[in-house]
């Protein structure tokens, strides 16, 4: 089959032609590109089209085409693929918004003073910011004698507030007559709502192009599906990633955006394994109910791997990715099995919402890596600031000694021992949020008869955990693992994918999602949960190029099994022996 005959290429061409038509007439649009459709390719084609058409007119007006990305990686890729054209201003959303607002210093000071998160700091600084310069660099809140440093979370609300003013909106339109938004579905909901309110359909506004897929929205603050009367929807009905066997399942799962493949004759594999026949006692509890015990789940995963190898799978990391949508089993496989039992909510460690975890993973461990490599500038940078004043050899020796002790303690010590070492040495210093929680635990009197707050109970348990588990967690979160889940695989693709699905995420119950997929209308109270579960399930199932296998360690109802039969075919479903 030639490329010209490819159904995927024909579908892609139709979407590009519709996009070019919108760009020609100045019509805002949303290009909905399902998994494997080539969203980034379409975005690049749009930018190349605009560069060719506007290479003379935009410079004369000192204008650029804005391209807003969700990550720095995406920004760098887009810049490289457009030859770093000066006509393109490509930045992440926060950097783009800061470029818009940084010149409005006087109104910014008033807006910052009105933000609740700044109240205590401003009172300590005398009750006013005065004429201090507002800056945004490291992403930490601070007030110095001559400047104020914004937090990441401040930038978008400040931009949204300034968008209330017509002068600010005119400045945006004059500077950026065309604004393209990558991964629109994950873009901050309040920011998108402000664009809809103040720009879309309004005379003199920029042309907006939104690229993404609302079925791949897996970040909590994202806007999801964007709908507006002034925005034309373009569906890109192509899949350049997966074999027809897999795409047929995706099309049954999502009939509203049917995808066409490159080679309709190519053959792949789909397997669905469930564990309903296991006779033992399953886990209990709100987030764990119905799942296999961790040791049984581990053994079951091993049996499924054997079955797949017998079916011709190459399970080496170069060929197969295992995606874990069950956190206790994932934690067990990865070497941080104590953490799910330590915290009430997995997000405390999976999203680094606990201050200790955030400090260890984002600052201390990178700093230790830099120290081991003798890159001392990078070490201090990892710790969040400029190098301290090292006035003498004794200062340097003191730092070297403290870090050398820390490196050894990381191998054998507990989290509590690491914290106590840092508290005593103050090289590096503990963040205030960590210090505060540690002080609260130290002064809590267990003999007073008061019930210990849950946050302190968690901290007490965390201090007993081996620090080696923190290192294992960091390795997993950084993606250096044969097991991945959730955000780490969004946009990625692999030859073969084995998805292990169970309980343990407080926001996810895939069995219930499959049941709801069988009803005519999802109840309003369940809609957000259903979409969250469906989207993550779709993202996981759409990663493989050739072979897909699903293993459900949680018990499934007859309704859930019926949904799996409709989506994947009844002949793909079988029980896996668990004894």
Unreliable residue stretches? 480-488
Number of helices: 25
Classified by CATH, the class of the largest domain is Alpha Beta
Q: Which strand order spans the largest sheet, edge to edge or round the barrel?
A: 3-2-7-8-1-9
Structure described in brief:
The radius of gyration is 26 Å and the shape is globular.
Textual characterization of the structure:
By secondary structure, the chain is α/β, with parallel strands linked by helices. The chain folds into 4 domains: 3-99 and 177-241, Rossmann fold; 102-155, no CATH class; 268-338 and 481-575, Rossmann fold (3-Layer(aba) Sandwich), CATH 3.40.50; 347-465, no CATH class. Strands 3-2-7-8-1-9 form a 6-stranded parallel beta sheet. Strands 14-13-15-16-12-17 form a 6-stranded parallel beta sheet. The chain has a 3-stranded mixed beta sheet with strand order 4-6-5. α11 (244-253) links the parallel β10 and β11 (260-261). α16 packs antiparallel against α17. The longest helix has 20 residues, at 393-412. The protein is globular and about 70 Å long. Residues 480-488 have low confidence and may be disordered.
């Amino acid at each position: 089959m030639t490329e010209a005959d490819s159904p995927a290429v024909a579908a892609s061409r139709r979407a590009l032609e519709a996009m070019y038509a919108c760009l020609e007439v100045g019509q805002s649009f949303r290009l909905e590109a399902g998994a494997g459709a080539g969203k980034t390719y379409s975005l690049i084609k749009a930018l190349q089209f605009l560069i060719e058409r506007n290479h003379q007119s935009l410079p004369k007006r000192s204008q650029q085409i804005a391209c807003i990305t969700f990550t720095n990686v995406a920004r760098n890729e887009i810049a490289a693929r457009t030859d770093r054209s000066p006509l393109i201003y490509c930045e992440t959303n926060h950097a783009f918004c800061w470029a818009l607002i940084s010149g409005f210093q006087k109104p910014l000071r008033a807006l910052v003073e009105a933000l609740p998160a700044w109240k205590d700091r401003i009172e300590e600084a005398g009750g006013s910011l005065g004429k201090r310069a507002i800056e945004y660099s490291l992403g930490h809140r601070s007030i110095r004698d001559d400047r104020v440093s914004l937090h990441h979370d401040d930038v978008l609300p400040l931009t949204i507030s300034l968008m209330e003013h017509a002068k600010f909106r005119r400045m945006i339109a004059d500077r950026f007559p065309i604004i393209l938004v990558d991964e629109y579905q994950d873009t901050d909901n309040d920011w998108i709502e402000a664009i809809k309110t103040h720009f879309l359909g309004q005379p003199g506004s920029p042309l907006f192009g939104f690229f993404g897929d609302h079925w791949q929205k897996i970040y909590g603050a994202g806007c999801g599906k964007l709908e507006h009367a002034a925005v034309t929807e373009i569906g890109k009905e192509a899949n350049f990633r997966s074999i027809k066997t897999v795409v047929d399942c995706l099309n049954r799962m999502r009939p509203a955006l049917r995808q066409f493949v490159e080679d309709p004759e190519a053959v792949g594999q789909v397997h669905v394994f469930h564990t309903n026949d296991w006779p033992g006692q399953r886990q209990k509890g709100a987030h764990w109910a119905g799942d296999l015990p961790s040791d049984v789940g581990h053994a079951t995963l091993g049996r499924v791997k054997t079955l797949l190898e017998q079916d011709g799978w190459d399970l080496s990391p170069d060929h197969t990715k295992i995606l874990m949508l069950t956190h206790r089993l994932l934690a067990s496989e990865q070497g941080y099995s104590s953490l799910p039992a330590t915290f009430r909510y997995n997000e405390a460690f999976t999203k680094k919402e606990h201050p200790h975890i955030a400090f260890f993973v984002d600052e201390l461990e990178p700093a230790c890596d830099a120290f081991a490599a003798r890159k001392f500038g990078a070490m201090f940078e990892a710790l969040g600031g400029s190098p301290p004043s090292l006035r003498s050899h004794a200062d340097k020796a003191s730092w070297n000694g403290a870090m050398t002790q820390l490196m050894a303690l990381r191998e054998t010590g507990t989290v509590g021992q690491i914290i106590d070492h840092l508290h005593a040495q103050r090289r590096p210093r503990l963040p205030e949020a960590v210090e505060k929680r540690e002080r609260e635990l130290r002064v809590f009197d267990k003999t007073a008869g008061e019930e210990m707050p849950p946050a302190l109970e968690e901290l007490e348990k965390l201090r007993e955990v081996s620090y080696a588990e923190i290192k294992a967690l960091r390795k997993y979160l950084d993606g250096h693992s044969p097991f991945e889940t959730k955000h780490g695989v969004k946009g990625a693709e692999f030859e073969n994918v084995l998805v292990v699905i169970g309980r343990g995420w407080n926001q996810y119950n895939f069995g219930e999602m499959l049941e709801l997929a069988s009803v005519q209308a999802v109840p309003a109270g369940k809609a957000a949960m259903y979409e969250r579960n469906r989207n993550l399930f779709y993202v996981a199932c759409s990663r493989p190029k050739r072979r897909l296998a699903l293993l459900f360690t949680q018990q499934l109802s007859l309704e859930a099994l019926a949904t799996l039969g409709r989506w994947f075919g009844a002949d793909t479903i079988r029980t896996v022996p668990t004894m």
